[in-house]
Specification:
Elements (H helix, E strand, L loop, with lengths): L1 E7 L18 H14 L8 E5 L2 H13 L7 E4 L7 H9 L7 E6 L3 H9 L12 E6 L11 E6 L1 H4 L2
Length: 162
């Protein structure tokens, strides 16, 4: 069994004229990252690796989550290739994961995440919002052979705000 938890980066700021990859989190993004990360702990597998896009907004989201999960920030594996908006590219990256790992937590970007969860999960999701979390289980022991899996958990910030 393999488990993939996809987390779209938190809301980013457009306040400064920066390259897309350099945009930081907005205040709302920081708050949402803390809110969601505090509410997913009980839904995470016992062991996992953490991958993150190198885009500033994804890296900052991953850091907030790992701190709230009481994981060392140094455990995040930053991957340039996760700065992608294409689900086919994301699929190749996921399928390249070593089978030594049963569970991956991945911080990335839309459209890649929404399209990936709709292709591989069994729940249709119109749009995974910023700081949205979708966890999918795959009935395989080989990342290269993942196919339609079971969507185990969906957590969006709006569902946690009262």
């Amino acid at each position: 069994m393999k488990n993939l938890t996809l987390i779209r980066h938190a809301k980013s700021s457009w306040n400064a004229p920066l390259h897309d990859k350099d945009r930081p989190l907005a205040n709302r993004g920081v708050k949402d990252a803390h809110l969601v990360s505090a509410n997913i702990l009980k839904h995470l597998p016992k062991t996992f690796i953490i991958w993150s896009s190198t885009a500033k907004r994804a890296a900052e989201t991953a850091i907030i989550f790992t701190q709230n999960m009481l994981c060392p920030v140094e455990s995040i594996i930053f991957k340039d290739e996760l700065y992608t908006f294409d689900e086919k590219h994301l699929e190749k990256i996921v399928m390249s994961c070593s089978n030594d790992y049963e569970s991956v937590i991945l911080f990335g970007h839309n459209e890649a995440i929404t399209n990936f969860v709709n292709k591989f999960g069994d729940v249709s999701i119109d749009n995974v919002p910023t700081t949205g979390v979708v966890s999918i289980n795959f009935d395989t022991d080989d990342w290269e052979t993942i196919s339609k899996g079971k969507t185990e958990k969906v957590i969006f910030p709006r569902d946690l705000k009262l």
